[in-house]
Every structure is written in C-alpha cells, then in structure tokens.
Amino acid sequence: MIGVLVPFTLSAYVVFSISMVLTQISSYFNVPLYIISLTFPIDFIGGAIGGFILGRYADKVGRKFTTILSIILFSLFLIISSFSNSIIELFISWFFVGFGVNAENGIAYALIVETLGSYTGSFGGLVQGLYYVGFGLDVLTFSFIRYWRFLFLTIGIISLIFGIISSVVIKETLKTHQKRVSNIGDLFISKYRYKTILLSLIVVGAFLLSVPLLSIAPTLIEKLGMTSDIGILSIIGFLSYWFAGFLSDKIGRGKTTMSFSALGLISGFLLIFAKNSYFTVLLLALLYISSGLFSYDGIWVSENYPIELRATASNFVFMFGRILGGFAPEITSVIGVSSLSFGIGIVSVFSSVLIFIVSIIFILIGNK
User: Fold this and answer.
1) Residues near 75 by Cβ (< 8 Å), separated by ≥ 6?
2) Is the pLDDT of residue 347 over 60?
3) Which of 13, 243, 339, 368 has the most crowded Cβ, counting Cβ within 10 A?
4) Distance of CA 235 to the CA centre of its chain
5) Tens-place pLDDT, residues 150-175
6) DSSP annotation of 106
7) Could you tell me which residue, 55 or 181, shows the higher pLDDT?
8) HSE of 180 in the Cβ direction (CA atoms, 13 Å)?
C-alpha cells in the first residue's frame, strides 16, 4: 500500500506547509494575518471542486492515473506559489493545491476499500492519521529552511518526485471490477439517496469538529504558555485516528461515531466554561481523541457504494464538508473573539450533536 501511504503523507506535507509561514507571508505582502488565513477556505473550496471533478475522472479512467495527476497538480502549484508576486497569485496557486490534495485523498479511500478485504477502518484510520505525520515533516523542514519561498519550492519538488515514484506501484482496481459507467444522478436513486444525504451531514460535522483543532487550537495553547503540549496533542491525534478506525471495524462505523461524538459533546461543553490552563489542555486532548471519528469517514462512504460510483461518491460527500470546514477557523475565531476556548467549545458542541443525531438516523434507517 505504498502507493496510498506515501502520496497521502505528501498531500498533508504540502497542504500544511503554509501554516509554518503565515506570519512571514503576512509581513512580506504587508497584509493582515486574517487575509493570509483565507488560504485555508480557498484551499478547501479548491479541494471540493477538484475532488468532485477528479473523483468522476477516477471512476471513468482509473485510480492510478488520476492519483498521479493529482500529485502533479498539488506539487507543481506549490512550486508555482513559491514565485508568487502578489497575494492574488498566492490565492490562485493555493486553490489548485487544494484541488489536487483533496482529489488524491478521496481516491485513496476508494483504493483502500477495493484493495483490502478486511480491517479497512484500521488502515483508513492509519492513513488519515498521516495528516499529523505530514505536519510533522513540515515542522522538520521548516527547522532547516526558514524562508517561505524556499520552503514551498523544496516541499513541492520533494512531493513531486517521491509522489510520482510511489504512485507508479499502485495496482489499478477500477478496470478489474467496473461493470458500467456511473452517472452522478446515481447518488440520489432510492437505494443511495439517504446514504448520500446522511453521510454528507456526518462529514460536515467531522470537518467542523476537526479543522479548528488543527488550525485554532495550537494558537490557544501558545496563548496559555503551553506550547510544548502541541506535539503531545499531535501524537494523541494520530493514535486516536488509528484506534477509532480499529474500533469501527469491531463494533461498526455508526456505533463508533456515536461514541466518539458523545465524547466530543461532553468535552466541548466543558471547554466552554474552562478557566484553568491545564484543564483546558486536557479537554482539548479529549477533543483530539473524539476527532478520531473523522479517520474512517472516507472508508465508510466508499464502502456504501459500488466500485463504479465509489470515487465520485467519496468526493461528492466530502465536497460540502470541505467547503464548510474551510471556513471553520474563521467561524471559530468569530465566536471566540474574546475567548478561543469558548469558540472551540461552541463549534465542538454543535458539530458533535449533528454527528450524533445523524449517526442514529443512519443506523435506524439501515436496520429497516
């Protein structure tokens, strides 16, 4: 599964690279930090569109070729972004970075389901946890290359070379199994309609729960003077992703989602009122654990559709989550304008309630 693990890690390596140099780029272009932060929603919007378009393409021409195309896109546009002479050029480049990254991720979920006969949740959780590995590689690279242009250029070149090399070994799964060409309308035929709608809502909730933990929580921890705990939370996040995927293989996706969203609801509610720094970090750790429900969502979506519709369904369902999730940092910051812990707590409660209720409905309808 090198053809899944390496490209997925590199996609995270690329997309989180800008988080290392937000302040630096803000100073370079002489614009407020919140303007530079717009790269996050722009990236997610690009991902929503790219995931949908290339997902359809992957269901027609194959997983391997489309994965390579996605890698070329996000790597080249990161390289191009290193030569940006205006904030508009940077935004355009980052749109296409997201276009490629999220398309690759959606195709990876389909490949996992089609390649592994069992324990797909465990492996999917491990793969999703590679987001933290990619972020760690950004931290490591930034420790040697501090200037944003050279950083983007270096990461882009590394991603392009190793991404293409690793994806060459992907075993094509579509041509072996596909029986017919799917139509986007198939997502809403009676057999799949409720799955498409409910899984889309669950994914929206998962993005709203997870994205602030990767974007806003580190800032909150720094303000609390506990920066060293960011690394610990990253490890907790990685392990929780794997454990959630493993548990979903054992007791089912729906039950696992309900359990982890309940933990998110309780932790988020307590975080709203938290005043003590250590208690705040503890609650954030519990939220990182609860966000593990995101780890197998791509697998959950993919296994509910036939192979000829799988990549399309995965990227369609994730499209809305990517769009709303891209604005999650801004939403959290506005709500938590006077207290980031309050903002994260409110968003966590809302997203956890949404996930919990929709999961119950999904299970009840599925048992009929």
Assistant:
1) 10, 14, 100, 156, 157, 159, 160, 163
2) yes
3) 13
4) 17
5) 999 999 999 999 999 999 999 887 76
6) H
7) 55
8) 5
